[in-house]
Amino acid sequence: MQPLSFKERVLIFLAERGGFTNSLKMTTPILSKYLGTSQQSASRLLITLEREGLLERRIVGRTTYVKITPIGVARLRDLYISLKTIFERPVNIVLEGRVFTGLGEGAYYMSQPGYVKQMEEKLGYTPYPGTLNLSLLSRDSIENRLLLQKLAFIEIQGFKDGLRTFGNVKIIPATINENIKGGIIFAERSHYDNSVIELISHVRLRDELNLKDGSLVKVSVEIPSNNFFENFRVKPVIYSPPP
Amino acid sequence: MQPLSFKERVLIFLAERGGFTNSLKMTTPILSKYLGTSQQSASRLLITLEREGLLERRIVGRTTYVKITPIGVARLRDLYISLKTIFERPVNIVLEGRVFTGLGEGAYYMSQPGYVKQMEEKLGYTPYPGTLNLSLLSRDSIENRLLLQKLAFIEIQGFKDGLRTFGNVKIIPATINENIKGGIIFAERSHYDNSVIELISHVRLRDELNLKDGSLVKVSVEIPSNNFFENFRVKPVIYSPPP
DNA sequence: ATTACTATTTCCCGAGTAA
DNA sequence: TTTACTCGGGAAATAGTAA
């Protein structure tokens, strides 16, 4: 697959070389090399783009100069703006799941002073001593859970209390049912699998949101775009060689 | 002209609707409407994009859900980055011209205390009492001159001294022959046409750069990208309707 | 409703080549 | 060397239609 249509690649190629303000010396064999196409197609491209008003050719002696027109600049700019709005707005990640009753481990862990003290410090509130378990519904939710676990930036250190060891825990702030502030808590070694999340809050969520086992709960987490898209680095596609 | 290839437009269409993190309900008639293509082509597009690993389809009951894959996200991100580097670096505008001798008006105006006082204030230096006239060489230079005149942000107010009226003047800082700091000065009502610029500096440029009539001079002005691209607002191309 | 196959048409690409 | 024409083959888009 060509990652882009040839027309845009020509405009980007020229723009990278200052074709917004300068007429650039350009031959069809050179352009065709860069695009990986034939000389004939490069020639046709320039002709078509000129007819469409996106660039302007001027022949001086035996050399051709090419410059992007204001319409061409605007065209590329529109594309840029539409991508910018996509990539620079915060990403809202939503998990949906149903409430279920666990074995009480949540309450046990959330009562350990070794955890609570750190949470008060790092969350700014005293968490209710218990967690709300959600069984995630969709594959999207499960995939997003894994991502959120990576992105959870509030780290609570584990500790020993003589009898037993309490592992590290990570938390990411979240909004529950578009309403209550809280967080998703990820235990380093959880007794649950990837299809489950545990929620914490300053209140008892079951009471506050009137939840019973089986109730549908929506958890949303806002991620700064940078943190999100960082996770999608693949070897880059070269649109045109460096200027 | 399709401003973009269909494939990118599908990815952008989905991305605008949260297709990075959520599986979106999608039918080929709806997609085809947005793309302005046939239902059959929309169908083929989804099939092809899935084969290429850029998106993922899941059929649940009789509805199809579509989600962008990490490879698809990376693809779009690469395009975004290459446009970002184009549109967010400062734009360097270059004018080239040859030195010529004027009728001495430059020196006359640049000796008026009504101008000089303001210039000292706004430029931070005392300009040499004279200007260097350049006759611009290329159409690019002449076009860019017009743009720079619009962008010139240092405004010197005109005044009357009883005998006569001195008009408003605008200046934009520039670098002359990659070396000397100075500015291009635009008189509101110049006795020269668009193919001429007048340069000012804290020194006498003819001496400093060893110039004679006919010498080639290169003047460059760095414009913040925003200020530059603002001038290219045309009615936007709709890549896909707002989410 | 959908999706997507097959057939037809249209359009695009590149070889050959002229200027 | 260039640019860019014509033309033949193939890819891609649409029409028709089945499931």
Named at the architecture level, the CATH assignment of the largest domain in chain A is Beta Barrel
Shape of chain A: elongated
Helix residue percentage of chain A: 25-40%
The number of strands of chain A is 12
What is the mean predicted local confidence, pLDDT of chain A?
A: 93
Tally of domains of chain A: 2
CATH class of the largest domain in chain A: Mainly Beta
Q: Which strand order does the major sheet of chain A show?
A: 4-5-11-10-9-12
Series of secondary-structure elements of chain A, N-terminal to C-terminal = HEHHEEHEHHEHEEEEEEHEH
What structural class do the secondary elements of chain A suggest? Answer: alpha+beta
Evaluate the radius of gyration of chain A. 28 Å
- How would you name the CATH homologous superfamily of the largest domain in chain A? Riboflavin kinase-like
Identify the most extensive interface between protein chains: A-B, 54 and 53 residues
Unreliable stretches of chain A: none
Proportion of residues in extended strands of chain A: 25-35%
Discrete helix count of chain A: 9
The CATH topology of the largest domain in chain A is what? Elongation Factor Tu (Ef-tu), domain 3
